[in-house]
Amino acid sequence: MQSALLELKVCAIQQLEFNDVWLMFGEGRHPRIDALFERKLAPFLSQTSNQFWSRRLSYFKEGLYYQGGMVGGGSGLSAVRWMEGTPSGQKVAQCWPPSPAQVLLPALFSQHPSSVHAS
After folding, report:
1. How far apart are CA 116 and CA 119, in angstroms?
2. For the whole model, what pTM was predicted?
3. Mean pLDDT in order along the chain per 10 residues (119 residues)
4. Cα–Cα distance for residue pair 97/39, rounded to 1 Å
5. Alpha-carbon span 21 to 8, nearest angstrom
6. Is 70 exposed, middle or buried (0-12, 13-18, 19+ CB in 10 A)?
7. What is the distance between the alpha carbons of residues 80 and 50, in angstroms, rounded to a whole number?
8. pLDDT of residue 2
9. Are 4 and 41 in contact (CB under 8 A)?
10. Measured between alpha carbons, how far is 22 from 116 in angstroms, rounded to an integer?
11. Is 16 exposed, middle or buried (0-12, 13-18, 19+ CB in 10 A)?
12. What is the pLDDT of residue 70?
């Protein structure tokens, strides 16, 4: 599974616009994942990764980071999500460090060709 995830991330970075990559891996959800996968990702994935992800596109509909295989059962993120609804939990959530995706993706795409404007 980890190799399929890595392959999907590399493919997405190479083939997609920043916003689509951010929705998939920063937010963990993409409203048009079916069409995006079929048209822009599947043709560039290995057969193994293509088969793996074609059966799991729902991960990007339900929330990638709330899938059991992604976070060791999902109970940790579920607890954080519940706590954010409480006053003390909101304070904890404010102290929670940003995810690696929130830090790395904007840095990786800060010089993305679509964000460079000709003068």
Report:
1. 9
2. 0.57
3. 89 93 92 96 95 93 74 45 51 57 65 52
4. 35
5. 10
6. middle
7. 32
8. 82
9. no
10. 18
11. middle
12. 47
